[in-house]
Amino acid sequence: MDLLIHLIAVALLIPTLALYTDTVIQLWDIKSLKRFASVSDVSIANDLIFSPDSTTVAWVDPGVYPQNYPTDPFISSMVHVWNFRTDKSPKTLRDPLDTGAHTNPLNNGMFSDGCSTRTPAFNADGKLLAAISNDGTIQLWNVSTGKILTTFMNERDLGEFVTGIAFTADGTQVASVSEDGTVRLWGIKNGQ
Description:
Elements: E1 7-10, E2 16-21, E3 24-29, E4 34-39, E5 46-50, E6 56-61, E7 78-83, E8 91-93, E9 117-122, E10 128-133, E11 137-142, E12 148-153, E13 162-167, E14 173-178, E15 183-187
Antiparallel strand pairs: 1-2, 2-3, 3-4, 5-6, 6-7, 7-8, 9-10, 10-11, 11-12, 13-14, 14-15
């Protein structure tokens, strides 16, 4: 049976591929070409990545528009992380204050596409994960607890749309770049 593959990621330290095929995240051993683990019922995945130690896969579920949108609010996106060596199923990282019904200051206060999350990035030891939200924030999670540690607030009034993030090598800052070319460094300990 042929697979329609939408996303692929390659682990750096072990011979493993992660594939997203319609509603399944699959893990394949590159040497034997055999699937050894999978997660079903994945509605949609964006930005499939491995942690630096190659034991955890993360992907973004971008959320969905209900049939009666915008009357019914957007169902917010979330980040899923799955340590396939220790966990049977993925953890969901979600802002506990996120109800899914958002107005977007960059969109004249109209309903945005929720707090659509994208572009996850792990720090060097894989214990922290950052992701960009369409509301102009960058959220930082503790991967093992699933708790949000901080939210970096971007300059929304300036209309900056964050397009990329990465951790510094020492793990003390998150770097972000906006579509206007602005680069910012955010201190993890002080949130600025």
